[in-house]
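Pilot study result, target chain (415 residues):
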Amino acid sequence: MAIIKPFKGIRPPKNLVERIESRPYDVLDSEEAREEAGNNEMSLYRIIKPEINFEPGTSEYDPRVYEKAAENFQMFQDKGWLVQDEKEQYYIYAQTMNGKTQYGLVVGAYVNDYMTGVIKKHELTRRDKEEDRMKHVRVNNANIEPVFFAYPDNEVLNTLIMRYAASEPEYDFIAPIDGFRHQFWCVTDDDDIATITEEFRKMPSLYIADGHHRSAAAALVGAEKAKQNPNHRGDEEYNYFMAVCFQASQLTILDYNRVVQDLNGLTSEQFIEALKKNFTVEDKGTNIYKPAKLHEFSLYLDEHWYSLVAKEGTYDNNDPIGVLDVDISSRLILDEILNIGDLRSSKRIDFVGGLRGLGELKRRVDSGEMRAALALYPVSMQQIMDIADSGKIMPPKATWFEPKLRSGLVIHKLV
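Predicted structure:
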């Protein structure tokens, strides 16, 4: 049973949203944020990447940086750039990429659901990244950016959402950089609010799609506040954190590909020969070749593309992890042949999100920066849900969700 609640969002006035909204904090570095913010004093980067308010090179973990985030968050409210809604409500957030639209419900997710596993995760988190986001939540006393959840398809909710989608949105803009359309509606009707709450109550689980560190940080700060409050009741705002929840079937997961710096001392011919132990290898020529199905990989090496099809017996269809292409390639290519065992720490490998296309893999190899590239077939949302349901954790760098949520459309205060 998933518990959610509406909340009084803090949002930009309609005429300011495009000056305030931004990409999420973790998809760009400090200098990119500094460049994108430019002279725009209203950019949300001044709150979520507050190191840009200091001289270049200032650490994002400097205590002054967190303090500046809180100072700017308050300033944005004082100047009327962010205004709190008077009524607790839900919100609908639509993203359109390449002609396909996905609709999310912005809700207050229940901290205890995260702690007890009703909200399910599929990735490991790093404590240092959790602590960074926890400091940001603490100092602002707010969830400035949402996390990204999936829920099982629900016809009642879909019908409700489509009714709102047919009306005039509160926000409607094309984002710079990615060029995707973003729309936003407020759900203020009491009956609709009750329907959303009740339909979520019927769901046994919610699934973190993207934002595992933000989810952990938000939930841990909420639990921390509960422990520190001697008069804790359980209905305080800090018991909830902001999430955008999408129907699982609407989500787009792109391939998350690999480029490697060397062949572990092997010649190209020796590497191809080693692959034939576990894969059927076929030279596809010089034109870009994309994997067409599960358990097929594309290799780019010496200006040629190869199809690698995993042989029967190299994976276990009954194991939700062992059947994943990211696991097959990690075990049988990166570890067994190239001796790249720890994907999180190895300096010999890098990862390229599918939005960049396979041309980016070719470019990085042809430039001499990398020796070879491996393209994977995308993971499905059903695979992610199966893994989360089984209590297992996916290998690192397995999923790339697109489009990313824009930040600054709505903020959740913990008081």
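One observation from the pilot: The chain has a mean pLDDT of 95. A full batch analysis is planned for the follow-on phase.
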